[in-house]
């Protein structure tokens, strides 16, 4: 009977399998390293790109903040200019009030009445003066009530006084200034325009 020793052949196969296992393990390690390096590179690229975007956004936000500060400063300047414009417009609108007031008071003042002072607070005027009698004060109030520029005469006080050895009535009278209505102003402008046209046609 022939005996064949298979131990060397089996040992050779074990060595080949072991070698293949080591080679496959090394390849897996290398492949895993390559995959890890690739993933790291990809994520590093994403991170650097995101950091670049964040830096860009920060710079743009800083620019927008500067623009907001500039807009606020411009708004403050605009508000200040509008306030000045309103003051100027109010002054221009009321600069003729004093002239109208004194003209109307001169027209409304009856004989035997003269003023000592006139004080204006807003649209209200306080008149202080002397009259020969209370009837003259009533006459003054009627004239003021009939004036198109003055309205709401209210007698505050009447008392006896002596001026140049004469007994007179010292009165305090409150009067309101009536603002011209826009409709009236428009009508006056409309009337003035045809009149000017007629003058040109001649």
UniProtKB/TrEMBL annotation:
Residues 64-91 form a coiled coil. This is PilN domain-containing protein. The keyword Coiled coil applies. Residues 179-202 are annotated as: Disordered. Keywords: Coiled coil, Membrane, Transmembrane, Transmembrane helix. The chain crosses the membrane at residues 21-46. Signal peptide: none annotated. Residues 187-202 have a biased composition (Low complexity). It comes from Thauera sinica.
């Amino acid at each position: 009977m022939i005996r064949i020793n298979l131990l060397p052949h089996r040992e050779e196969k074990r060595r080949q399998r072991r070698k293949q296992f080591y080679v496959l393990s090394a390849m897996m390690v290398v492949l895993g390293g390559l995959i890890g390096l690739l993933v790291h590179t990809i994520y590093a690229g994403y991170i650097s790109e995101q950091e670049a975007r964040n830096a860009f956004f920060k710079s743009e936000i800083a620019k927008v903040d500067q623009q907001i500060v500039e807009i606020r400063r411009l708004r403050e300047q605009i508000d200040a200019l509008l306030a000045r414009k309103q003051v100027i417009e109010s002054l221009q609108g009321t600069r003729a009030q004093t002239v109208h007031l004194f003209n109307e008071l001169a027209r409304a003042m009856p004989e035997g009445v003269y003023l000592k002072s006139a004080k204006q607070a807003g649209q209200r005027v306080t008149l202080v003066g002397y009259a020969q009698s209370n009837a003259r004060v009533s006459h003054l109030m009627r004239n003021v009530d009939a004036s198109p520029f003055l309205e709401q005469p209210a007698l505050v006080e009447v008392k006896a006084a002596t001026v140049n050895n004469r007994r007179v009535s010292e009165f305090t009278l409150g009067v309101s200034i009536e603002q011209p209505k826009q409709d009236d102003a428009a009508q006056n402008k409309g009337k003035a325009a045809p009149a000017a046209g007629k003058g040109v046609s001649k």
